[in-house]
Design goal:
441 residues; mainly alpha; Cytochrome Bc1 Complex, Chain D, domain 2; 3 domains; two-stranded antiparallel ribbon; Cyt_c-like_dom_sf; Membr-bd_ADH_cyt_c
Length: 441
Amino acid sequence: MKRIIQYGLLALFAACVVAVGVLYWIGTRDDAAPNPAVVQAGAGGAAAGQQLVEQGRYLARLGNCMGCHTVPGGQAYAGGTPIPTPFGTLYGPNITPDPQAGIGGWNADDFWQALHNGKSKDGSLLYPAFPYTEYTRVSRADSDALFAFLRTVTPSSQPSRAHELKFPYDQRGLLAFWRALYFEPGVLPTNESQSAQWNRGRYLVEGLGHCAACHAPRNSLGATRAADGLTGGMIVGLDWYAPALTADPVRGLGKWTAHDIAALLRTGVAQHSTASGPMAEVVLGSSQYLSEADALAMGTYLKSLPPTQGSPDASSSNSPSGGAATQPSNAVMDRGGKLYAQHCAQCHQDQGQGSGLAWPPLAGNPTVTAPSPINAIRLVLDGAYAPATAANPRPHGMPPFGQVLGDNDIAALVSFIRFSWDNRASAVTAFEVKRVRDASR
C-alpha cells in the first residue's frame, strides 16, 4: 500500500511538472502563422521609402507611442515615462535609433517580434504594460512602416530606466504563465460579412488604437478578457473610470452617432460629452491626427458593439452593480440643487442640457452616469479642460471647485446631477469625495 501511495505521488508530481512545462511552452511560443515578407524602407526608391516613413509617422500618432515613450519636455521617444500599476511602476523604454540605449541595433523582424509576439530582440518576454495583447493584431506592413519611421527620429543615448516592480512580479520568467492564460498572438482577420469601413474601424480600435487598454475591465492579474469587451472600467494606476464604448444607451455610446464619436476623437468635443482626464491626453497626442475616414471608421465599428448581457437598457437604473441605484435623500437633492443653480446652471443650463459644444450636457452624459462617480467628483474638484486641437484650438474650460466647496457639498452636488433629469446613477458620499481629494494631493 505504501508503495502504491509513493507511485501515486510520483505520478502526480510528474503530471504537475508536465503541466507547468506545457504552460511555459504556450506562454513563450510565437505565432504559428508564416512570417510575412518584410517591406524594406528603401524598396522602390526614395519616394516609396519616404511614403513608408510618413505612413509610420501617422501610425505612431494613432498608437499614441509618445504617450509612454516620451516624458513631458523630454526628447521624443527617448523613454522614461512612468506607468503606474498595482504591481509597481514600469517605465517606457528608449525606442530611438541609438544603437546602445535604443533600438538602433534592431531590424524590422525584431520590431515585428515585439509588436506581434511580445518579445524583445533577445527573446525576453515583455511586460504587457506595452500593449502587445492588442498590437499583435497590427499587420506586418504597418509594423514595418512604424519601424521605418522610428529609424528617422533623433537618436538619444539616454538609458532606459529599470522597472520598479514588487516581488514576485519582477520575475520576468513568470510572464510565460500569464501569457499562457491571457495572450493569443495573431493578426486580426477580415470579417467578410462586414463593410470595409467596419473592418478598418475594428482594426484601429482593437489593434494600434488599443482602446481595450483603458475601456475594458481588468482582473486581479491585470488582464482583460475578450468576453468582457469594451464595457468600461477603472484605469489602473490613474484613478479614472473609462466609460463603456458599447451601444449601451445609459453607460455607453447608445445615443451617439458614428459622426459624434469621430468628432470627439478629432476635436475633443462632441454633442454628448467632452474629452477630459486621460482621454483628453489621448486626443491631444493621438486621435486628433486621425484622418476623417479613419475616425469615422472607428465610430462605425464602435456603434456596432451591442450592450453586454446584464448591462442596463435605456429605462433601467445605473448603479455600479447593475441593480437599483441608491437614490439620494430629499435633503441631499435639495442641497445639491441649490449648489447646482449657484455654480453650474449658468453654463450647463437648468435642465442639464448644456449649451452648444462649449458647455456639454450633464443629462445623459456617460461621464456623469458612469457606474463609478470618480470622474464627476474629480471634474468638480479639479476642473475640466478639453484638449486644444487643430479643429478646436481654444476650448472652454471649467473652473475647479475643490477650494470653494467642502466634501459634503461636492457629494450633494454630484449626487444631484447623477440623479436628476433622466439620470439614475447612485448617490455619492462625502467619504468618496474625501478619498478622491486626498488621492489628488
